[in-house]
């Protein structure tokens, strides 16, 4: 077929409706020319196919398959000029056929995506003209087959080539702009690829991708009911952990919108979301934007947990959305594609039903993530605070389910008390207080943290009710600060045991934060119960040196902390059986430290017993530490706490043993500033002759002493002597061991 008369010949065949001859002409142009081994023949074949298409006019649609296939084959030609001619030929074919080429769109798109990355500028320029033409056709048509196109788009979106990526994004923007094409339905299939393109080195491509993602997000906000949130949740979880700041910020913004728009549909993905969000809360100002968005995500997700979640049966799945992946799956990237063209990774797509059914909270996964972040010492302070807030929130909203995890959480919560941050410790104490006071803790049949201790409180020694509502009149005092309910459960006493063990094994914690921790607990829980239980535990403490130190700490808190004002008033008068019971309990443990025992007697106005105790000090080993504590007690007597005691010095007749006790302390002290201070105070006592009274003097203020008359002070004094003998024996043993060690060193 000669090339010049070809258009006329084809038009004659069209006029005759001779389809067989037309196909024959196209076949010759394809097989013998366009697919020839000779470059010039291939060039002629491409020109001929384009001319044939022009001659066919509107009938070219009937022969598009035969016309397009050989031209697309030439797209892979080694000669750049032939690739350009192929591009030019296809442009003419498509221009004539217009909408008729849409059934062949996928092969055209595939060919164009390859030309977009062509190294030859002329070929690239030609492909851009063809690309614009094809976009115009798609935009003006309502017959575009999006369903068949998505798999190809999903594959090509993972290209690493910048020009191919630019080509893909431009097509996504075009398809988004067409009203009749609902690309949002297929967003889960291309979202992962879009986020990967967002990390491209080219600023232009990143900007284009930002625009595309922004348009999608606008559409999601407009039509949230038609969005497949669940199918995209895990994709966002992965990219919220990206190293690239732009990817991470964009994914986090999407996550924020998803949580706020989809609500509880996002709950099954909570552990993955928290894995991504929690570390961001500790970012510095260089990533301030990411930190702020992550904080909103965290707060919004926390609000989705409701009390009804504590009642749902986790064994019965009530939603058809995909299950959350394991920790390995949720953090891992998909495997790379090994096709001929360079790609990054396989697409992420999680098919699921779009039904919006009530979901069940996966509490086990959430607790596992929170436990991991709290255990990781490299995690920042704000993240640890957020974790503790989450745990506290879960214990408030879902206490029944959370108490199943308490035994595993308890050790790490105790270790967190050693944190460097006061704010972290405060949140930790709030959480521990909630665990110790929640009624849900009483439904666990007394199962508490496994501490290996068999110590149990005596019923007359510790006001801890066995069940909710069983409270004595005294144990209800001061519980208004309890974060949930005025009851103590089985975890309370075990918390006290483990806290004291922590102080014993970590003396620096006791020295630096001991008072702070105990004072905060007194605000959060019942101060009387705390002191009562600790005294009961210390009574059985085998490490006598620690017991003495701990008693001194507790006594200092009792005498000086404003949080314990009510408890001090209760002890000062000893008017009730409960206050006398508390005094006896404290006294027995306070005997580990002689000076603190005297100060307790001063606080409770047991002046005669204080005098009797000081008389026993002559039998004790007087050390520098002992004298230092006496010095501190003298300083305390001058503080506002003991104002009432100093005023009672005016009534010499009714308080002879108070004056005798103070003189006893004065005789113990060396000539020091404390000696001078107490001596000057005693010099202010009016008329010293009134001090000459006998032991059987009856005080006029008889009510207070009558109320305390059922206390066996003789037995208490004997207990004091017994405890001090133990301490003396222990000191001798320590001295003996030290002497043996010195001998070994010498040898």
Automatic annotation (TrEMBL):
Cellular component, GO annotation: endosome membrane; PAS complex
Highest taxon, organism lineage: Eukaryota
Subcellular location: Endosome membrane; Microsome membrane
Domain annotation Vacuolar protein 14 C-terminal Fig4-binding: ranges: 507-685
Main location: membrane
Keyword line: Endoplasmic reticulum, Endosome, Membrane, Microsome, Repeat
Summary of the function given for this chain in its UniProt record: Scaffold protein component of the PI(3,5)P2 regulatory complex which regulates both the synthesis and turnover of phosphatidylinositol 3,5-bisphosphate (PtdIns(3,5)P2). Pentamerizes into a star-shaped structure and nucleates the assembly of the complex. The pentamer binds a single copy each of PIKFYVE and FIG4 and coordinates both PIKfyve kinase activity and FIG4 phosphatase activity, being required to maintain normal levels of phosphatidylinositol 3-phosphate (PtdIns(3)P) and phosphatidylinositol 5-phosphate (PtdIns(5)P).
Subunit structure: Forms pentamers. Component of the PI(3,5)P2 regulatory complex/PAS complex, at least composed of PIKFYVE, FIG4 and VAC14. VAC14 nucleates the assembly of the complex and serves as a scaffold by pentamerizing into a star-shaped structure, which can bind a single copy each of PIKFYVE and FIG4 and coordinates their activities. Interacts with NOS1.
Family: Belongs to the VAC14 family.
PANTHER family assigned: PROTEIN VAC14 HOMOLOG, TAX1 BINDING PROTEIN-RELATED
Name of this chain's protein: Protein VAC14 homolog
Native organism: Regulus satrapa (Golden-crowned kinglet)
